[in-house]
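[step 3/7] fold_predict: job queued, chain A
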Amino acid sequence: MSSAAPPSYSPTMVVDRAENKAAAPRRNVLTIRELGHERLVRILRAANGYLDTPPEGDELRGRSVGLLFFEDSTRTRVSFTAAAQRLGAHVLDLASGGSSMSKGETIADTARTVAAIGVDAMVVRSRQAGGPGVAAAAVSSPVISAGDGRHAHPTQGMIDVLAFARFVGRADAFDLAGLRVAIVGDVLNSRVARSAVEAFSLLGASVVVVGPPAFAPPKLAALGCDVSNDLDAELASCDSLMMLRVQVERHGGAGAPPGYRRGYALTSDRLAKLRPSTVVMHPGPMNRGVEIDGEAADGARSLITEQVRCGVATRMATLVDVINGASEGGAP
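[step 4/7] structure written:
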């Protein structure tokens, strides 16, 4: 029996195909944009509640969560594992280095294998854009993106807005109108930046992305944000300054370009120019002495530790949304 050759891979194709499966009885989390305002706020409110009142550990008792990480991770993997376990779920953890993925098996085939074993949701991370979408198109269980290439990292975007909203006292309605967030660094190559822009903008905040022209080109305005190549010009107007590391793994191992620290690092001098109420954020991992100095990372106005604390709560809320929502017949 003959079989047709698979279509050539296109990140745009697989992302669009996964996000347009509106009729599927699932609740994927592939991008913030896909979530929409109502569902985003619902997840954030649940996460905020978990921070104030930890779960009893039975929300997902008897359920299973598969972690399929085709790219190395520490924070995201540990956070999702802790989230599932604190809800009472069993975790099936696959790392690419110790599975058939290292032998050339595709994302789709690996996802089908894990689905056949039996899981209620999958958390997928991949080096290429569209990897979680490929998995979502191959299985019937809901899929949560844990980051894919330069494309998206939706739960990190939710974490960032949750930490900020709690600090500014807007974690009830999550209305961030009138506030301005600057995201600084290697924006072009950052999936975290894209999801953060989507999340902050969807909740009403004004967002500006800042970096050298190679990292913050004019075309990023298509994300719905302002674009600036002058960090010092933005310091006095922002309510939050979120720093990003240079994505060396997406630059062939090259580090920060010459003059980067001088123009775009959050140094002690720049810290002193911020308004007293402005907070400092960083999704991690940080490169101290490159994009951020210790005084900024560890100072009183830093929300970096709070972002980490919000991580497990946000991922608990996301897992409950996709698993219990799907079992109750919720929309995708």
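[step 5/7] annotate
The domain at 24-153+310-323 is CATH 3.40.50.1370 (Rossmann fold).
The longest strand covers residues 64-69.
exit 0
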